[in-house]
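Quick question, first post here. What does this chain look like in 3D?
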Amino acid sequence: MTYPEGDPLERLNRLWAQLVGGLSRSGRRAEALAAYREVRMILGAELGVDPEPGWPLIATSTAELRAATAAEFIELLRTIHVRSGLTLPEVSRRAGQVLPRSQAYSLLKRGKLPTKPDQVRAFVTICGLPAPQVARVMELWATLREQTELAVSGPEDDKPFAILIVRSA
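> Answer (accepted):
Ran it through. Tokens below.
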């Protein structure tokens, strides 16, 4: 059966994604998580949809995977986390030794770009991003990391140098 407005389940998914995304972006993370859990419960009860635990029903769109600064990257990680429906201790437990609980909290709380790519990759994978989106997040991280390193080290011409003078007898 075809529907003029598209698949009803897909439309429902988009509407819930807009609600959860809007709540999350406006800083209302607890409400976003509650809305996510509600749609998960409704789809489970009404349609018998029971996704694999830890994998979100509402995926992050590839267009949303952008960040030009460390602060924007951390906000992106927060959005991915909220949409996952997982608590930080759950993320840490699933990641094992790659992402200790303190580091899971540190990824989202501090204002600096994460330094360990394995932790970023584990975090977004466990939060449920598909492989192409994980790759995109890692590209963003690498670009921002490179920019940060260049900003700290400065251009090559500004580095001090020394001249060694050798006198012969």
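DSSP finds seven helices and no strands in the chain.
Confidence is low (pLDDT under 50) at residues 51-58.
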